[in-house]
Amino acid sequence: MFTSSSAVRTLRTLSSLRPLFTSSSSSKLLRRRYPKLLFPPPPSSSSYRFVSSPAQSGGGGVSGVDGPEYAGVNRQVDALEAVELALDSVVKVFTVSSSPNYFLPWQNKPQRETMGSGFVLPGRRILTNAHVVADHTFVLVRKHGSPTKYRAEVQAVGHECDLALLTVENEEFWEGMHFLELGNIPFLQEAVAVVGYPQGGDNISVTKGVVSRVEPTQYVHGATQLMAIQIDAAINPGNSGGPAIMGDKVAGVAFQNLSGAENIGYIIPVPVINHFLDGVEKTGKYVGFCSMGVSCQPTENKQLREHFHMHPEMTGVLVSKINPLSVVHKVLKKDDIILAFDGVPIANDGTVPFRNRERITFDHLVSMKKPNEMAIVRVFRDGSELELSIRLRPLQPLVPIHQFDKLPSYFIFAGLVFVPLTQPYLHEYGEDWYNTSPRRLCERALRELPTKAGQQLVILSQVLMDDINAGYERLSESQVKKVNGVEVENLKHLRRLVEDCREEGLRFDLEDERVIVLNYNRAKVATSRILQRHRIPSVMSSDLIDDQVSGTEAEEVACSIS
């Protein structure tokens, strides 16, 4: 919720995060698969990473202040008790996945095998990390001490919070399984035991450590900032999705660590887990995390506070930018001072009280609200205090941060390949994509806000060479602004503008006032031969075919190489 400079600092932090699953591919391929997301290269050799490994042979919501969910009793975890709990609760997850090729969006990259961990919850569900099953094509699970692998289906995935639910239909799998219960957020220095299947062996592993920090942290897989628990237990690739056990209950889910540092790992806390589970139980699918859609600036400078006539006892943050699609766009105004959220006062640095002498950013209070839930925001505007009611819901960025578990969109006409700008597209430029991808596209991906619902930034990603488009090949990697004078709203709109053209010439206006002009009828004929030459099965991705198109017509569109 803070300014763009803060966002860039956040990007640098996220570049350090790594997931903890193991993969049969080399570590270089893993880095390419999770290529720093939104962030430029880290300033030092330290980096966060996921915790799933390469295939080898052989409690309740948080209110922001002290509450009953934090009234836990300090107790040391007995590693032997954790082992006993885990033997009939923790499973090994085997995933075969195939991610899309965003430069060639009509085909996938070679499949790869990864392994992680998971554990069973009441209701015959298996909880694991989203990055363990991202872009999955086939998932198996195996119980401890069993040689049998059972087919699992992915019920729901929350990529922002890096959590996924699996189900197994085979009754034999559930025989003798012990369901784990979720506990509370542990206090600092409370002991936890992390259980899973890290690399280095095939059997279950238990490592022990203590809680060293609880605060909002960057989740590398979803490029989102949510609450996380830092522990000093050894969390290694393959631990992803395994439980962190405190006493006889789960305190969190292992999901990433800090590479280059000694035993610094992170677990997803129970409030985030419960938010994910509650949404799935009520709607049958992942519902996301709410956002106010505002950028805020701290008011720590005395002159800044005096300029906005804040009283000496007032504290809060300054609203500097509001997302036009946010529900607060017509409620809050630029230069409002947000004093409190749901009755919790906000300090000048944007933090709120949390437990005993701890503080967290007030974004956490927003993210824990359920979609369409009301919140009361107290603001200071033009010398007066106001209490405003807002209904919160998740917000989608103009340029999607991730596109897991879905095929890329594309449209080809006369060898011009049009795609919506996404961050996974930029990741195709390599591990150092922040510096090697086109600078203007990168800046738009990081900073631009949408102005209307359904908006996309459509780009000409490449030109498949042919006589019809000779001379236009240098115009690739540019944003398409207009088609025959009509502003492009999204890729489906561009496709309609092209197909509905009734003029002899078809004109594309690109950024920097550059223009592409084609003879429409000759370009239609050329499209078919270009698709045949490059063995591309369809002129467009399936999501661009209108819902009202009949099955026969859809098949003709999808196979339009004629």
From TrEMBL:
One of its GO terms (molecular function) is serine-type endopeptidase activity. GO terms for biological process: proteolysis. Coiled coil: none annotated. The keyword Glycosyltransferase does not apply. It holds the Pfam family Trypsin_2. Keywords: Hydrolase, Protease, Serine protease. InterPro entries: DEGP_PDZ, DEGP_PDZ_sf, PDZ_sf, Peptidase_S1_PA, Peptidase_S1_PA_chymotrypsin, Peptidase_S1C. Residues 399-543 form the Protease Do-like PDZ domain. Belongs to the peptidase S1C family. This is Protease Do-like PDZ domain-containing protein. It comes from Acorus gramineus (Dwarf sweet flag). The lineage of its organism: Eukaryota, Viridiplantae, Streptophyta, Embryophyta, Tracheophyta.
